[in-house]
Design a protein that fits this description.
single chain; mainly alpha; 13 helices; 0% strand; transmembrane helix
Amino acid sequence: MLTRFFKQSKPIPLFLTLILLVAYYISQHFLTDNLPEMGIANLALNLAIIVFNIFLMRFIIHKNNFQKSSNYSIFCLLLYLMIFPETLSNINMSLALMFNLFAFRRMLSMHSNIDLKKKVFDVGFWCFFSSLFWPPSILVLILAIIAVLFYASDNFRFYILPFLGFTAALVLHYTFKMLVFSTSESYISRLPDFVLQPELNYSSHEQIRIYFLIILSLFLLFFLPKIYTGLKLNMQRSLSLFAVAYALFAFALIFNVNENFSQSFFLIMPLAVITGNFLELKQLKTLWKEIFIWLLILAAIGLHFI
């Protein structure tokens, strides 16, 4: 049974998932016309960054102990990548997600109350570099404020630190560009361009995938209170940051002028984490977990080939 296989703490499910990911990545690019556009070097680099992001995601989950095993989340991430294969063709999104995960790692470690100032500063620092590759990543600063509210709300100075970290990274980047390339950077043009009335001109295939996300999100939202009851306070706060990240990135994808499905990586990462927590619910019978996983597999295969 799949639930028994992915529930184990051994690394076998992780490596099997990675093998499936690499096989899917190779088939997706070498059997299509994307190879001439990206080149073998960029394809290999992008794959290496994606695999690194998965290991980083696994490390974050284990380090913060809000899942017994990260295997469910990583396998669900693979299925969501199959539904949105465009995410595997954009190296900028992979790099932006990597810096976002660095920021998440610092945010979630705030619960230890060790080196809080440094951690809050680092969130803003990594947020800047993420926004270089995907401008809406600047919304992570909102997550930083929420994290400060969770772990250091009694000290007003902590609310300023993410912006100081962001500014410090900006100054370093500007100085580097001036010294190495002798060119200045127009950071204003890099700001995300949001609109209040987005043009939702999607094809029928894209609409089906959006409906899938909406239905799955509502389903998980229904079980979210039960997921929270099985977690300690710090774990609840960690999961809340992922839930808020999902909402913020959904907003960015809907209202960003330059939105496309290659940016869905930011959406499916927190969704995979929340799905992993759902599959670890003790109140949920193994049979229903098994059915849910098989439905996800069928949805991934079906939506990929539609």
